[in-house]
Automatic annotation (TrEMBL):
Its EC number is 3.4.23.43. InterPro entries: Prepilin_IV_endopep_pep (IPR000045). Residues 16-116 form the Prepilin type IV endopeptidase peptidase domain. Pfam families: Peptidase_A24. Gene3D superfamilies: 1.20.120.1220. It comes from the Bacteria. This is Prepilin peptidase CpaA. One of its GO terms (molecular function) is aspartic-type endopeptidase activity. It comes from Sagittula marina. The chain crosses the membrane at residues 6-24, 36-55, 61-79, 100-121, 141-162. One of its GO terms (cellular component) is membrane. Keywords: Hydrolase, Membrane, Transmembrane, Transmembrane helix.
């Protein structure tokens, strides 16, 4: 992995609760709240100053802008929800550019597991544990936060253990 273990160690404890929260809210309400997206971005703004070299920290804002523009285009094309697009933009600065291919594979695996798990729970009595959750009745729609949250959390957790040593 290209991310440093030190930066992953700084980011993980602050991002993990937010990742869990968006998984919950997306399953419950089929939306990723703006305050969660904003909080994730603020975590990067503050912790990024500690976790990254300053020049790299500044470049990571370019990742945010590129992901935001791409997400807006996909939202306009109705290919993804606005909350998903904003979440992806907010999580982009946490990702080392050298890990982008790995992240795409990780996201694919996480998406598949989340989709199968959600559909399994939806079709079994497990969904009775939270019968009012909107995602159970959302038809073909899927709460993408159920895959996006774990993708960031797993990426950073792997970075803690398999990331590069600090320069």
């Amino acid at each position: 992995m290209s991310i440093t273990a030190a930066s992953a160690t700084w980011f993980l404890p602050f991002t993990l609760p937010i990742c869990l929260y968006i998984m919950f809210t997306d399953m419950k309400q089929m939306r990723i709240p703006n305050h969660a997206v904003g909080t994730l971005f603020v975590v990067f703004v503050v912790i990024g100053l500690i976790a990254l070299p300053f020049s790299e920290y500044l470049w990571r804002y370019v990742y945010f802008l590129v992901a935001l523009v791409a997400g807006m285009a996909l939202t306009a094309a109705r290919a993804m929800g606005a909350g998903d697009a904003k979440w992806i933009a907010a999580m982009a600065p946490f990702i080392h550019l050298g890990d982008l291919s790995f992240l795409m594979i990780l996201f694919g695996v996480t998406l598949l597991a989340a989709f199968i798990g959600h559909r399994f729970a939806k079709l079994t009595p497990i969904h009775n544990l939270a019968p009012a959750w909107v995602s159970w009745q959302a038809g073909k729609k899927f709460p993408m936060g159920l895959a996006l949250g774990p993708t960031l959390a797993i990426y950073l957790a792997l970075g803690v253990f398999y990331g590069q040593p600090a320069p």
